[in-house]
Amino acid sequence: MLDLIHYPKDIKQLNLTQLQSLADEIRAFLIENIQKTGGHLAPNLGTIEMSIAMHYVFDTPKDSFVFDVGHQAYTHKILTGRKEKIHTLRQKGGLSGFTKRAESEYDSFGAGHSSTSISAALGIAIANGIKGNNHKSIAVIGDGALTGGMSFEALNHTGDSNADLLIILNDNDMSISKNVGAMSKYLTKLISGKIYSSMKNKSLGFLEKMPRMHEFAKRSEEHLKGMVLPSTLFEELGLDYYGPIDGHDLPTLIKTLQNLKTQKKPRLLHIITKKGYGLDSAENDPCKFHGIAPASDSSSILDSYSHIFGRWLINTAANNKDLMAITPAMCTGSGMSEFEQKFPEQYFDVGIAEQHAVTFAGGLATQGLKPIVAIYSTFLQRGYDQLIHDIALQNLNVIFAIDRAGLVGADGATHAGSFDLSFLRCIPNLTIMAPSNGLEMYQMLNTAFTMKSPVCIRYPRGVANVENYETQDTVEIGKAKVLLKGEKTAIFAFGNRVEVALEAGTELGASVIDMRFVKPLDTQLIEEIASTHQQLITIEDNVISGGGGSAISEYLHQQKITTPLRILGLPDEFTEQGTQAELYQQYGLTTKGIINATKI
Asked: Of 405, 425, 458, at which residue does a domain stop?
């Protein structure tokens, strides 16, 4: 059946039995393909029926679907003309792992970060009203994304509008017992139908003339629904609430969406799904199968930077009760799972709330504790104001362990940590370190823990190229390290580009310097190197504009040092997806790229 489906119009002629068969085929198709390409397996297995029902009931692309995060939209891609390209998912030149406007007219809004869908879909809904069309706007958001503050800001605005907006809350962290599920299913069908809505509106209009009876009727309805439905929060915010219903029950999903399609007020449908649905291993361990690597990936015997950070946390917390580790819902990705188990009183997962995570850490710091915020570079962008206003301005001793700095590979531009050196370097009171390997990272974490001011340690995705890294050693603040002494050419390397700089330096007979610090710079060494070499090259896994190379260039200019300087880094554009190796090659951040730069 899947061979016959190319666009949403193709499924509208199917009956319910055929739709269920289609769902089963899509599930098998996704399992087979994602295991080859890598990607978000469990989230997509949990949203197949929802995606089919949405496309069956609504008329895309006139009607807009806005997926939060977007990593659960693989079925949506299959149904909207991209089935034949699924084998290119997350690969260079292939399909994005998220929704992307440039990829398809069916992707109404690009995604990648959490908690954005309600805001975007509300904007689309209000624009529809202004333009006077009858198009529908539908936001899909998960229970995890709903913890993000932006979601509540959007809900607050939505409830105060008359926008024709449907929010689908995909809740995969709640179970429904059979009898409660059957009752709520019946009530949802009933209260989303035309008869109920019509009766409710007419009766409330009549009762408005009798204030005491109107209040009694309103309270009775809220009490009745409150006994079986968690509707209070959303209805208080001004949204009509429906659900919860089984998100894998296609007939109920379709009937409910058909009823809700006829309504024009802000409304929320609460569906219950199961991550990894239909694949036992994914159902039993949805965290492990949330995102999987391609089958061709070989595991390294070396530890990742994230794992090394987790080891440092455990070793340091054993003798320091003041250490407090904070994560905005990225426990496993940040290497903190074992720490959470061993030191639960010193561990805080604040949910998808990056802004809160940063300021919360600041509050802890004012009381003499030592907070460490483990956060991906791309997600720290969301806490930027808090970093400036609540941490740096007050010079609070918060450590930021910034994971996934630089190019991250298959997740593409939305997850690349391309900008952190640039947006951090301009903030007063910050110390910024960029380790070149796991041992150096461990030493920098030791150093940061002794400091009384805010510190950022940014490190890449991937293995750390060392076997032994646990140490009590520290590094001297602001001091770079000469790794090779050569002539004519000197290469200043930041972070994980030190390795390729060493290879190039060996071939060129050049000096190689591991800068280690982006702020403060080792200005004394920079002047010395500039005075004894004929050309200088900097290389970093960050955008050129405002990064480490820019910092060296600014200093040379201030000192009226005229030794020619070439800066290698990421260009002034959003990077593509692909493997890290492919992207480093594309942007010239390789041994060959350095050698070529010396010839220009």
From this structure: 458
